[in-house]
Amino acid sequence: MLKGKHIVLGISGGIAAYKSAHLLRLLVKRGAEVQVVITPAGKEFITPVTLSALSGKPVVSEFFTANSGEWHSHVDLGLWADLMVIAPATASTIGKMVSGVADNMLVTTYLSAKEHVMVAPAMDLDMWAHPSTRRNIETLRADGVEIIEPASGELASHLVGKGRMEEPEKIVERVESFFRRSASLEGRKVVITAGPTYERIDPVRFIGNFSSGKMGFAIAEECAARGADVALVAGPVSLSAASPRIRRIDVESAVEMHDVALRECSDADVAIFAAAVADYRPACVAESKLKREGAEEMTVELVRNPDIAADCGRRKRPGQVFVGFALETDSGLDQAVSKLERKNLDMVVLNSLKDKGAGFRTDTNRVTLVTRDGEAAFPLKSKRDVAADIIDAVERMAGYGQP
Ligand code: C5P
Predict the structure, then answer these.
(1) What per-residue confidence (pLDDT) applies to 331?
(2) Which of 257, 91, 135, 118 is nearest to 176 (CA)?
(3) Which end of the chain, C or N, has fewer beta carbons within 10 A?
(4) Which residues touch 397 (CB under 8 Å, ≥6 apart)?
(5) How far apart are alpha carbons 265 and 314 in whole angstroms?
(6) Any bridge partners for residue 21, and if so which?
(7) How confident is the prediction for the chain on average, in pLDDT?
(8) Cβ(77) – ligand 1 distance below 6 Å
(9) 67 is catalytic
């Protein structure tokens, strides 16, 4: 499973570092080439001799080899790696990763890593629960880092609670699942619409909505991480896409989004309509700023916008999988089912504005995936994890990766 995969194993200074030797052994046994990078504090807990014997490679810790002056390139390591796993990650290392304090080889390698990064935190329960750690973990997540949550149990302090590094076998499962997923959309084109649309009234005003684009961007990153070529048709949002596999096409209005989406969908394997498209636009756009002087009331005549998902759905060819969203103010299952039919979609992602933590501008979402075969409800998760659930369902439906 891991044959020929290049993994950088970062070890920082916590008691759990003793488990890293076992983790290293499991990775090597499954065929991975592992390069260990250890922090100075990490060496207080486990010796480089043990680690280099298990990995078959000298352990990297210092920027230079003291006697020869040879420089160890974190950039080369970052490029070599298909995956970086930091286990254990202490509160201090996590804090340095968040703020870019690159004073050791582990953090410099992290900052140079081009591919996926997983972090398995290990610390005392109070440190794990501290607002500083909570903030840092959320920031890492937002930066695209996968967090392997610590388990609960007895800690080095003899206190009992959450903070134990996840067991090496479980970490290896996550590593294997990453490599399985990382190729599951290779050679596939995915089109995603995201964000709001702005419908101009005059040169300074528009009709818009509260969509942040976060859900659509999370789906784009997830598809890119699985090897897809992504066309992200984005309305006006203040987000940036991290993966070079994402080709972003910025649009402003529904009509512009409609044109681009129709074009991009013609040769797509999958299309996901996550944009909050304005249903109406002003019938005409004033050339100069509308004045309020002398006008007690104002009427803006609106005309209907095209339904992007429905128009793309009408042109859908066999084998293409199209997914829409339904944001409802109540449970909305019936509406989701009727949207499947009306827009010729294969799946509708239903989320309710009533759910705390779901909907616009949040980093989390709670969804129900509705298909013609029934529905599956998921708990509240980060938008990136919701994206993974959606893409898992799409892959199953499309039969990708099936023999
Ligand atoms: O009909 P409703 O707006 O509830 O449907 C929501 C779904 O349809 C979303 O997937 C949204 O992106 C898509 N949609 C669209 N173009 C519109 C309106 C909605 O693509 N004009």
Answers:
(1) 66
(2) 118
(3) C
(4) 321, 346, 347, 371
(5) 11
(6) none
(7) 93
(8) no
(9) no
